[in-house]
Amino acid sequence: MRVLKHLFDNNKNWALRMKEKDKDFFLNLSKQQSPEYLWIGCSDSRVPANQIVDLLPGEIFVHRNIANVVVHTDLNCLSVIQFAVEVLKVKHIIVCGHYGCGGVKAALESKEHGLIDNWLRNIKDVYRYHQEKIDALKSENEKISLLCELNVAEQAANVCHTTIVQNAWKSGQQLTVHGWIYNIEDGILKDLDICISSLDEISKTYRLK
Q1: Where does the pLDDT of residue 209 fall: very low under 50, low under 70, confident under 90, or very high at 90 and above?
Q2: What pLDDT, on the 0 to 100 scale, is given for residue 25?
Q3: Which among 100, 104, 93, 72 is positioned nearest to 179, based on CA atoms?
Q4: pLDDT per residue over 35-77, tens digit each?
Q5: What's the confidence (pLDDT) of residue 154?
Q6: Is the sign of the CA dihedral 135, 102, 150, 98 positive or negative?
Q7: What is the pLDDT of residues 167-198, one digit of tens each?
Q8: What is the pLDDT of residue 1?
Q9: What are phi and psi of 48, to 5 degrees?
Q10: Burial zone of 122 (CB within 10 Å; 0-12 exposed, 13-18 middle, 19+ buried)
Q11: Measured between alpha carbons, how far is 155 from 161 in angstroms, rounded to an integer?
């Protein structure tokens, strides 16, 4: 092994620590995954899903991308949602953003960033919907923080608008979509009061018969 040997050493040490706590941990983990939660979060390395909510591997199903975006053309994200809802039968889908998100910050800028600009268009659309409210704020940090929150709300709504989630509700499956945001500076989650568990709670425009 020529490179990254320290990561393999870390892995061995971690596995030993886990087995010291519970000798059957990996045996039990290998049998089946039955998480109740799907986490859709940002790819930012400072926002690890399991650690934030203090859950072990196997207890949360995770999808991450830049700025926790859910787009109806993203087959990767939609496939994760479909598997989580229809196969794993998760009971909760959590869309979790974070303050100081680099993707959100970049979306507010008027300069080219490369290929990612195509992805950031989704967040620029959120900004356009709420531009008057955001621009009324004085500081750049306030603007970024508000757009981070509004982006979570928009992406949680996008989850609810999928045929996957709506069909689950129509079949009587217990499923709730949440919108949260994480503060990297103190490690605390904030509930954005987004908690949707039925077709009646989404806009009629997006309800599918």
Answers
A1: confident
A2: 87
A3: 93
A4: 999 999 999 999 999 999 999 888 999 999 999 999 999 999 9
A5: 98
A6: negative
A7: 999 999 999 999 999 999 999 999 999 999 99
A8: 63
A9: -80, 120
A10: buried
A11: 10
What is the pairing mode between strands 176-183 and 60-65?
A: unpaired
Report pLDDT for 34. 86
Q: Which two tokens stand for residue 109?
A: 């800028």
3-state secondary structure the chain: CCCCHHHHHHHHHHHHHHHHHCCCHHHHHHHCCCCCEEEEEECCCCCCHHHHCCCCCCCEEEEEECCCCCCCCCHHHHHHHHHHHHHCCCCEEEEEEECCCHHHHHHHCCCCCCCHHHHHHHHHHHHHHCHHHHHCCCCHHHHHHHHHHHHHHHHHHHHHCCHHHHHHHHCCCCCEEEEEEEECCCCEEEEEEEEECCHHHCCHHHCCC
Over pLDDT 90: what percentage of the chain? 88
Q: Which of 141, 150, 124, 143 is nearest to 185 (CA)?
A: 141
Asked whether 52 and 182 are in contact (CB, 8 A), the reply is: yes
- Which residues are catalytic, by number? 42, 44, 46, 98, 101
For CA atoms 27, 30, 36, 42, the dihedral sign is positive
The residue ranking higher by pLDDT, 155 or 24, is 155
